Amino acid sequence: MIARLFRFVLTGLANSAVGWAVIFGGLWAGMSGLGANAAGYAVGLALSFTLNRRFVFGMTGAVSGREVAKFLAAFAVAYGANVAVLLAAQSVLGADSALAQLPAIGAYIVIFFVLSQFFVFKPAVSE
Fold first, then answer.
1. Which of 28, 31, 81, 117 shows the smallest number of beta carbons within 10 Å?
2. pLDDT at 122 (0 to 100)
């Protein structure tokens, strides 16, 4: 479980780096800020799905639409929790506190990992 969590964190760092590269590359190429941001997040999420599916959780075979939908739902729940924890932390630490990001990031990682492990990439029970 610890090794899987480590691979999950590595995957998160990789998809963040690629997403940021797409965002800044898009801005450099003349895209609007909103367009570059959307492109960066789309590429980052696609890479996250691919790496998490194979590298982190060891899933093989064809990708199903249901699996993608579950991944996007898990992302939405984890991101929603991230925002809720961030707002709560900011109410205590101040709206501009960088420290408020730490519990928010922690909540996102834990929730997304647990949902990925037990909901998104849970192997089918053999019949």
1. 28
2. 83
Number of domains observed in the structure of the chain: 2
pLDDT of 69-93, one tens digit each?
999 999 999 999 999 999 999 999 9
3-state helix, strand, coil in the chain (%, to 5): 80, 0, 20
Question: How far is the C-alpha of 67 from the C-alpha of 10, rounded, in Å?
Answer: 21
State whether 125 and 69 are in the same domain. Answer: yes
Residue 57 has what DSSP assignment? Answer: T
Written as six digits, the tokens of 32 are 């609007």
Question: Domain containing 67: what range?
Answer: 62-127
Give the integer Cα–Cα distance in Å for 97 and 88: 12
> Are both 47 and 71 inside the same structural domain?
no
